[in-house]
Write a structure and sequence with these properties.
Blueprint: E1 2-6, E2 9-14, E3 17-23, H1 27-39, H2 45-52, H3 56-69, H4 88-99, H5 104-111, H6 115-124
Antiparallel strand pairs: 1-2, 2-3
Helix pairs in contact: 1-3, 2-3, 4-5
Length: 148
């Protein structure tokens, strides 16, 4: 088994015959094809790892994926994670507390969310912190000259 990269394509050879071609940037197809080689008995996992410079554990992971879901498993888009702690209702409540001037740690204690989670939401723009009011320093009265 050999491969050649040329003009943005990867071509796999068995002996001197080309057996498969895909775009160089198509990682899902590489994973699928290398897993097929193992499943069909054309190569061992160790041979694939050495030939392509991929960690053996990664090859094992993709062979397992192929066995469980077939070729389609490589083309399933990743699941989108949602904000588990900061649902829209909780965000609204947190924002109203921040708007009242409460500090982030205090808001976190009140709603049962770590302050770190709230700080991340502030940095990402999902929440906004109200600006602290800055009061001008009090001017001390000038000392009076005593008459005497």
């Amino acid at each position: 088994m050999a491969f050649q990269c040329e003009d943005g394509k990867v071509c796999y050879f068995n002996g001197h015959l080309p057996v498969f071609i895909h775009d160089q940037e198509d990682l899902a197809t590489f994973r699928m094809f290398s897993s097929q080689l193992v499943i069909n008995g054309n190569a061992t996992q160790a041979q694939i790892a050495r030939a392509f410079g991929v960690p053996l554990v990664t090859i094992k992971r993709y062979v397992k994926l192929y066995r469980q879901g077939g070729t389609a498993a490589f083309y399933v888009p990743p699941k989108q994670r949602s904000a588990s702690k900061l649902s829209p209702q909780v965000c609204q409540e947190v924002q109203s507390l921040l708007d009242q001037g409460l500090e982030v740690p205090e808001v976190g204690r009140r709603v049962g969310i770590l302050a770190n989670t709230l700080h991340k939401a502030i940095r990402s723009g999902r929440l906004r912190r109200t600006k602290k009011k800055i009061y001008p320093p009090a001017i001390a009265p000038a000392p009076r000259a005593s008459a005497g």
